[in-house]
Every structure is written in structure tokens, then in C-alpha cells.
Amino acid sequence: MSAHVVLIDALNLIRRIYAVQERPFLFNGELAPNTQQQVLHNTVQACFQALQNILAQLEPSHALVVFDSEKPCFRYALYPDYKKGRAKMPSHLAQQMNKIQDSFLALGVDSLEPDEDEADDVIATLSVKVALRNQHTTIVSTDKAFLSIINENIKVYDYFNRRYLDEIYVKDKFQVTPDKLLDLWTLTGDTTNKIPGVAGIGQVTAAQLLDEYGSLAAVKNAPQLKPAIKRKLEENQSQMELSRKLLTLKQDIPLGFNLKDIRLNLAQA
């Protein structure tokens, strides 16, 4: 029987659910202390319900919820401004993670918090390993980073909009195919994570270059490239190399467990 592994980007799911629960109680951007416990209770319940829905909708044979490490990942050492300015998780929400993990475990789904890696890299590693065995993975996340690894065996599912973020979605949003996304973002950067790109090259220009030449390597070596573009690439070569390292999802993390360890008890799920 072919495996279908569902990997859930934990904080992507939990923080979005919390934002929905918190929004009605915000006043001038602040959460009143007397409503905090109600919002947290609602968040735990909503996370439990979300996982129930995911299991019912996707019908996996295996599932795992993956958290980020509490330690900074390798990207911060390469680039201290990585994710600079992004709002931190509220401390009162962070204190609920054990409760949320326990609620997930009640559905038969374990949680993984790596020692030093981001959830994205762990999920990418496991997805690729499963795909190499011609088995199927669905990543539950709205993080665009995962779009760069989708293929016939790896899918990305947006739980909040109940849709797959497939090749058609990628083409419509970025004007390139998934296999060219890493090249595209190397040129444009990623504002969400504060990763810079090549100044003066936006998504439209980057997509046109990749459509015409096929890859970033081919663009850089094209003899007929416009002088202004060529100059920008030459002046930003070291920046592009750094950005590519930051944007590339690791696919070789030692996981320390087997698929059988995350198999679902389907009667329980």
C-alpha cells in the first residue's frame, strides 16, 4: 500500500489560527488581559479541530506536526538580518504549545521540535526522502518556500483556503514553473524573510529572463543579455550567492526516525 504522509508546518498553522481567535478581542492592537485566557482556550480548541479536519480531508496514512527549533538556525549565522522585524510569538501563546501538542497527540499525531533546524528544512528533507521512494507527501502550509519542491509526489495544501497550491497556482502567481522559483527568488529576494535580491530586478523582469533563458546560470552566461542587466548581476554576484543559500531548503537533515514511527492508527484518526 502506498504511503501518504501529511506534514504540518506547526507554527504556520497555529499562529494563523491564533490571529483569527485574537482579532475580535483586540482593542487598539492590544489584547485585554481579562480576555487572554479565553482566546488561548479558543486557540487550543481550534487547533485540535483543524487537525481533525486535515486528517479527514487529506486521509493520510502517516502524519507529523513539525515545529521550529528554539535555537536560531544556520541562516542567522550567515545573515544576521534574516527575518528581521518579524513579530515574535506572544509569550502567552508560546506557553500553550505543550497543550496544543497534547491535543494533537490525542488524535494520534506526534509533534517534532528539532534541535537546531527550521521546520521548513525538516519538512523538505522528509518530503524528498518519501518522494524518492515514489510515495506521496502533502505539506500543510501557506509558506511559499515549499512551492519550490512540489512535484508529482510532493503537494502543498493551504488549509485555510481549502486548496492545493499546485503548478497552476505557482505559474499564475510567479509566472514561472516551480523548478524555477529558487532562481526567481535569488534575483528578486524574499521580503517576507528580509532576504535581499538584485536591486532593480523585480518579479516581472526576473520571470521574463528565466522564461527566455531557462535558468539563472543561463541568464548570467547569455552573450546577448542587456548591458544594464548584466551589470546588475555582476555587481550583485556575492549577494545572489548568499541569498540562494538562505532560500534553499535543506534536504539532508538526519531525521532519527522512520516512517513507521509516524504511521497513524486509522481507527483512532
UniProtKB/TrEMBL annotation:
Which keywords label this protein?
DNA-binding, Endonuclease, Hydrolase, Nuclease
NCBIfam families recorded: PRK09482.1
Q: Return the protein name.
A: Flap endonuclease Xni
**Entry-linked Gene3D superfamilies:** 5' to 3' exonuclease, C-terminal subdomain, 5'-nuclease
**Residues in the signal sequence:** none
DNA-binding among the record's keywords? yes
Kindly name one Pfam family recorded for this protein.
5_3_exonuc
GO MF annotation terms: endonuclease activity
Q: Which SMART domains match?
A: 53EXOc, HhH2
Q: Which organism is it from?
A: Thalassotalea eurytherma
Stretches assigned to the 5'-3' exonuclease domain: 3-265
Q: What is the lineage of its organism?
A: Bacteria, Pseudomonadati, Pseudomonadota, Gammaproteobacteria, Alteromonadales
